Amino acid sequence: MKKFVLFVLCVVLSAVVMTGCGEESPFVQKEYVASASEVSEININVRDRKIEVLSSDDGDIRIVYSENDTYAYDIAVSDDGTLTMTCKNDKDIADYFGLKPSDADLTVSLCVPDGMVERLTLCTTNEDITLEPLSVAESADIETNGGNIEFESLDVGSGISLTAKNGDIDGIIVGGWDDFSMDVDIKKGECNLPTEKTGGEKTLSVSENNGDVNIEFVG
Which one of 64, 65, 100, 167 is separated from 201 by 20 to 30 angstroms, measured CA to CA? Predict the structure, then answer.
């Protein structure tokens, strides 16, 4: 009798799960636009999303993303000029049954005018962060747990912080070697930077766990 009851419960649970999966709404691509003159800082903190930073030539900041009833975002500009983007939902029941959205649906594209933003903070998990050539007036803070960080040409006014776990850091920083003081912490990986370096007017902080670091300087 107990085995029969357990069997019935399993059947009912399976039916509920399959019904829920079948009713999941489709993804819709959306775009959030803000004037760069109204934004001094950008802070994107998401989970399981790839972040790509692209150039913008029209003076506006754009975030292109996809969402549905399950995967949605909170996006807003505060009174002090900080543009933030966060996930409303950290986990979907579909994740537990191996049902994943497409790569395109889980990509956040940020378009930024060159040199118009003072501070840039990007954080994600289990995905990569990539940046096209970009100038930031003050600082850039980039972090991923479970992905790579790649940047083509990053120019900052005061400092760069790069943090990765189970992924590589690879990129080009605008400026000379002597322009930067460095604080580098590497575990289980190769790195072409010294552990510590003093004397620069700008700062470079690198933390890498289980990955390689290859950073070049172009003055």
Answer: 167
